[in-house]
Amino acid sequence: MDETEENFDESHVVHRLDAAAETQEELSAEIAAIHEAYNKGVAAGAAEETQPRIDFSPYRSSILRHPTKDPHHADPETIELWSPAFGHRDVHALEADLTIQHNGEPLGERMKVRGRVLDGDGRPVGGQLVEIWQANSAGRYIHKRDQHPAPIDPNFTGVGRCITAEDGSYEFLTIKPGPYPWKNHYNAWRPAHIHFSLFGTDFTQRMITQMYFPGDPLFSLDPIYQSITDQKARDRLVATYDHSVTSHEWATGYNWDIVLTGSNRTWMEEEDAE
Ligand SMILES: [Fe+2]
Hints:
With 274 residues, the protein is an alpha+beta fold. Helices cover 13% and strands 19% of the residues. The protein is globular. The two termini are 33 Å apart. The site of fe (ii) ion (FE2) has 2 residues, from strand 7.
């Protein structure tokens, strides 16, 4: 290679890296083999899994960063046991509306996402800080590491939060996010999703997960979604379209309940997932 700085062609380099990357077919075959082994195990009496595999090789960017040793219990710092504490005075009701944060209307499908936060016995979890972040309708985040050629929407930041009501309910008004490419392998695309964080009563209880939309054609191809080996556990991350939530000439509506503990618990991810 004798590319000097003067004739350095960056697009050429990107192309070369892409050409060397693995194909979707290779990744999909790897996912299928892991799932087949899991399903055989369950059929033979092994316990069903409810959580993602931390060591899931098709999710390439997690290979070097996932834990390789058993978790070691560490006592939280004193301050972590009682802070931060969020209440209705800290979080304004309008922060749950992601469509009014700028001067104009964001582009895309306006939609409501609502549901309830429940514990493993089905009891509502009220007073819970729920935060979301998401790409815009074109699949673009406002983030310096997201530079793929889809438009930024000047009227959409993609972050919101609310506190659950006494009955555990939450509701956001937002724009349906688009799918977006990522660099796990060649031509890798994430299904459309909204990131959720639930804070509990202190830092040590924070949990993070993703909500998906029904019927997404990218489900079977996505190593993050497929790192949950059990189909029933994967299904729990998919919202339900609910026509009674949809409002006339205004917004479509989706329902998604979050279960914090028990065998129906929602999958929660390690920090730093894409
Ligand atoms: Fe994302």
